[in-house]
Design brief:
Helix 1 runs antiparallel to helix 5 and helix 10 crosses helix 12. Strands 6-5-9-8-7 form a five-stranded antiparallel sheet. The chain is built from 15 helices and 14 strands. 49% of the residues lie in helices and 20% in strands. The protein has 541 residues and is of the alpha+beta class.
């Protein structure tokens, strides 16, 4: 059954129950009130008749009924009572609406309290049927009970009196039920529109899917309501905020969690903000701030999505590397085309020896490099990176040397190769950019070793070196000694972050006569774990 039908059925059933209970209660009160009024009326008439002097003196006459019957019948007709019966202590009737029943005994069995001097209201079955009656004792001059007056109204007549009120009550109940059905339909339709026509099972499924999507994305998602209180924060957001994934931020004030969200201002303006920088913890992040609007266009909250700027730059860097690799391939194609033309010309000139020397020289350089890397740097990701950087260096006219004593075979299986690629690739790129800044020798030396308990990566260049005042700042995100160009100042920040995640450390020393030497040490025994600088100094290289 659909939610709309369930709501209509539930609301109608609930209101029907309430209306019926109230209706029955009102009917009960009405019946009780009328019966009480009629009972009091009957008792009043009975007490009045019992005090009539003629009635009292008639009891001592030879035939009391001849005096009592006419008097009582007139009173009965005046008051509208069904019957007024006067009887003696033995219950013998002196009056009755049906004269033939005079002289017979009274029926009902409720005379005992009256004979004791009490006036009562009772329900009993008399000679005319079930009735509500009032009874009063008749006293003589000495105060002795000498008879009984019984005034009755038939229950059938009382029911007739109640019928109009019951009919009106029934109409009220029916109108109430009709209003309940109309109200239930309107409420059900309103709820249906509010939840976009979805069924509970669909809402539950969408909620689970939303949770899965929010937790699967690498971006931090942070949402607040109109008052600025947190309504949702995924695991990535908590991690970037330095909080435990199990910590519940719902209900917390956004500024208490992290300052600088600007979500309240976005809600005030109603205008989204994209790709804005913000400091979260120790990281610079790129933030998108979007207001959340209701179906009527009112702003009811805001959502912020953010990601580390270093991650964003890493993606850009990977795309840039792909672009540079394509450009490198085009340059190499052009270079090899020239060499092929030169070899073709030498062959046409029958200078076979010179052609063979050129071919041998070119093939030896690449073959020796490939063979060396396959033997001493067998990891495909690291080896492929070195070959790519070697080709890039040739294109830039930079001499890239890989130390012949290098060996990088003993890599722990659990070590994240992506972090190693980030470290080595950015250090080589940084070194090549450094040597291109000055004239003279443009050399970059790379040394890798897996001997001992650490993996050592060393990159040295013959560039201008790093000024002493900049040594402490070169690992800051966005800072660069090469100027303020866009997308600079991220490479070394990525290197530092990757080294820390691998539990290693990084040092910088001056190269002689010019340039810099970057040395990275990564422990083998605890990849991604903790490692102290003092422990590495004790081990040495």
């Amino acid at each position: 059954m659909k939610l709309q039908s369930k709501l209509i059925l539930f609301i109608c059933s609930l209101l029907l129950t309430i209306i019926l209970v109230i209706g029955l209660y009102i009917e009960h009160l009405q019946t009780e009130s009328i019966q009480q009024q009629i009972g009091m009326r009957a008792l009043t008439v009975a007490e009045t008749v019992s005090r009539i002097p003629e009635i009292r003196t008639a009891f001592f006459a030879q035939d009391p009924s001849q005096i009592i019957q006419p008097l009582v019948e007139d009173i009965r007709i005046e008051t509208g009572a069904e019957y007024i019966v006067v009887g003696n202590r033995e219950g013998v009737r002196y009056s009755h609406p049906l004269p033939e029943r005079i002289g017979e005994h009274m029926i009902g069995g409720d005379n005992a309290p009256v004979l004791r001097g009490e006036s009562i209201i009772s329900e009993a079955v008399g000679s005319l049927g079930p009735s509500l009656r009032g009874k009063a004792p008749i006293y003589d001059e000495r105060g002795k009970v000498i008879g009984i007056v019984s005034v009755g109204f038939l229950q059938e007549d009382i029911e007739h009196r109640l019928e109009p009120g019951r009919q009106k009550l029934a109409w009220v109940i029916l109108l109430g039920l009709l209003a309940a059905v109309i109200g239930a339909v309107l409420i059900a339709n309103s709820v249906k529109r509010a939840i976009f026509g979805l069924e509970p099972a669909e809402i539950a499924r969408l909620y689970r899917e939303q949770e899965a999507v929010l937790e699967s994305v690498r971006e931090g998602i942070f949402a607040v309501n109109r008052q600025g209180f947190v309504t949702m924060a995924n695991h990535a957001a908590k991690q970037m905020l330095g909080l435990s994934p199990e910590q519940d931020l719902k209900g917390s004030y956004s500024r208490d969690v992290q300052k600088g969200w600007r979500l309240l201002k976005v809600m005030e303006s109603g205008v989204a903000e994209y790709d804005r920088e913000m400091i979260v913890g120790d990281e610079v992040v790129m933030v998108n701030r979007i207001p959340v609007k209701s179906g009527k266009g009112d702003v009811i909250g805001a959502v912020a999505s953010f990601r580390s700027k270093s991650d964003w730059y890493k993606v850009n860097e990977e795309l840039s590397q792909v672009k540079r690799y394509a450009e490198s391939l085009r340059a190499q194609t052009h270079e090899f085309s020239n060499k092929l033309y030169m070899i073709s010309g030498l062959i046409q000139l029958e200078s076979y020896q010179e052609a063979m020397e050129i071919i041998s020289r070119e093939s030896d350089v690449h073959q020796h490099l490939v063979h060396f890397i396959m033997r001493y740097v067998p990891d495909p990701m690291i080896g492929g990176l070195l070959i790519g950087k070697f080709n890039r260096a040739n294109e830039l006219k930079v001499e890239l040397y890989i130390d012949k004593e290098s060996t990088f075979v003993d890599l722990p299986p659990g070590l994240d190769r992506n972090h190693l690629v980030t470290i080595l690739g950015n250090l080589i790129d940084n070194a090549m950019e450094a040597v291109l800044q000055q004239d003279g020798e443009k050399q970059v030396h790379v040394f890798l070793t897996d001997l001992g308990a650490d993996l050592i990566l060393e990159v040295e260049d013959t560039g201008p070196g790093i000024p002493e005042g900049d040594v402490e700042r070169i690992f800051e995100v966005g800072y660069s000694t090469k100027g303020a160009e866009e997308h600079r100042g991220f490479g070394l920040a990525l290197v530092k972050k990757a080294v820390e995640q691998l539990g290693g450390y990084l040092t910088i020393t001056a190269n002689q006569p010019t340039g810099s030497v970057f040395t990275v040490a990564i422990p083998k025994h605890a990849p991604g774990g903790e490692s102290t600088h003092a422990e590495h100094l004790d081990r040495g290289r």
